[in-house]
């Protein structure tokens, strides 16, 4: 007697919907956290709290909370000044660019504002981590949910741990670190894992579409190269909207690592070529989806991605022409880059038609 194919076990009624709702809140929190991180960097507040994870205050106190007394604020200010001296020594030795020291506050009040910007970023990161842990625990509690999305939530939580480690390690490199691209790329991967979990909760079966997936990979590459460019453009002269005047594309006397990490002209070129290739890939994917009458979700996602890509290009050109130290436009550029990446992931994960499942 032949056994019938085993059908996937369904989760408890409403369990997938509830987890999907909390995962959506988590995704929104991750996007907010990524934007807050950009605000921290662009405002020069990235090293306002030089200790991780606990904040060291007066009398040896160690806490997760910001200072509440004038004495503790003074202790935090002095800790920042000591860290600034260490950074200044590395700048003088040529190990770091002067930008790595971040904004230099005129007084304690200005330092307090910088401190609270960075503290808010850490608070939001802690809340996102706890919510991700809760989503993973919920998924693991039911076998059906564990099989469907447990892996994606576990991957997201692991990457959040890596992100925290990177954040702590980058404090020693200052706020304009060349390694910022690692933080940027990893942040996008965290959001991508959560989004894929949501899609799996909405539609259990998917079929990957190659062109949108390629476009999503290009969008991720743009986020990574944008992280490199964010640091290296401060080492190069003003390069105009296209970055053609940033200097030689290769420094013949420098090492391979120095060229890849610090050459602003090279980063300008790679970033803009990747942007052009991304636009071409989105248009090709949209044309293919229209011809093949792909699922409506795929076509809508690609149409939205094309719009986002055009706006993103305009924001990128504007960012290149704005004075260094501008915040709003570069921050919008970064935020929309993450949204574009996620939109292309939605287009890449097409819901499999019911007929295909029946045939299988």
Briefly characterize the structure.
The chain has 360 residues and is mainly alpha-helical.
Structure commentary:
The protein has 360 residues and is an all-alpha fold. Helix content is 69%, strand content 3%. The protein has two domains: 189 residues, no CATH class; 154 residues, no CATH class. The strands form two sheets. The chain has a two-stranded antiparallel ribbon with strand order 1-2. A two-stranded antiparallel ribbon has the order 3-4. Helix 1 runs antiparallel to helix 3 and helix 4 runs antiparallel to helix 5. The longest helix has 34 residues. It is globular. It starts with 14 loop residues before the first helix and ends with a helix. The N terminus and C terminus are likely disordered.
Secondary-structure element pattern, one letter each: HEEHHHHEHHHHHEH
Biggest sheet architecture = 2 strands, antiparallel
User: Mean pLDDT, as a whole number?
Assistant: 88
Helical content (DSSP H or I, runs of 4+): 55-70%
Per-chain topology:
Blueprint: H1 15-42, E1 55-56, E2 62-63, H2 70-92, H3 108-141, H4 143-171, H5 180-202, E3 206-208, H6 210-232, H7 256-262, H8 264-291, H9 296-321, H10 328-348, E4 349-351, H11 354-359
Antiparallel strand pairs: 1-2, 3-4
List the defining traits of the structure above.
mainly alpha, disordered N terminus, 2 domains, two-stranded antiparallel ribbon, two-stranded antiparallel sheet, 360 residues
């Amino acid at each position: 007697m032949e056994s019938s194919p085993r059908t996937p076990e369904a989760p408890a009624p409403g369990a997938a919907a509830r987890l999907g709702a909390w995962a959506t809140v988590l995704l929104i929190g991750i996007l907010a956290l990524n934007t807050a991180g950009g605000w921290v960097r662009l405002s020069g507040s990235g090293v306002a709290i030089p200790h991780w994870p606990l904040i060291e205050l007066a009398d040896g106190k160690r806490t997760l909370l910001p200072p509440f007394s004038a004495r503790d604020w003074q202790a935090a200010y002095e800790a920042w000044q000591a860290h600034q001296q260490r950074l200044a020594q590395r700048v003088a030795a040529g190990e770091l660019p002067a930008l790595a020291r971040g904004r230099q506050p005129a007084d304690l009040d200005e330092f307090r504002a910088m401190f609270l910007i960075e503290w808010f970023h850490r608070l939001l990161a802690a809340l996102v981590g706890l919510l991700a842990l809760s989503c993973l625990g919920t998924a693991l509690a039911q076998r059906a949910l564990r099989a469907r999305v447990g892996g994606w939530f576990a991957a997201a939580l692991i990457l959040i741990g890596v992100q925290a480690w990177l954040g702590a390690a980058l404090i020693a490199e200052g706020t304009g670190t060349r390694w910022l691209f690692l933080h940027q790329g990893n942040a996008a991967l965290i959001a991508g894992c959560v989004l894929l979990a949501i899609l799996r909760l909405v539609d259990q079966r998917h079929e990957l579409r190659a062109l949108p997936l390629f476009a999503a990979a290009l969008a991720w590459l743009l986020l990574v190269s944008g992280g490199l460019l964010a640091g290296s453009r401060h080492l190069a002269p003003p390069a105009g909207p296209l970055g053609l005047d940033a200097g030689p594309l290769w420094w013949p006397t420098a090492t391979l690592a120095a060229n890849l990490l610090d050459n602003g002209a090279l980063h300008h070129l790679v970033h803009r070529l990747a942007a052009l290739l991304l636009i071409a890939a989105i248009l090709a994917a949209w044309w293919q989806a229209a011809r093949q009458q792909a699922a409506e979700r795929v076509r809508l996602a690609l149409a939205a991605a094309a719009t986002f890509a055009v706006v993103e290009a305009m924001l990128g050109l504007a960012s290149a022409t704005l004075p260094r130290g501008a915040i709003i436009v570069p921050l919008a550029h970064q935020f929309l880059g993450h949204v574009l990446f996620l939109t292309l992931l939605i287009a890449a994960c097409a819901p499999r038609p019911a007929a295909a499942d029946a045939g299988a």
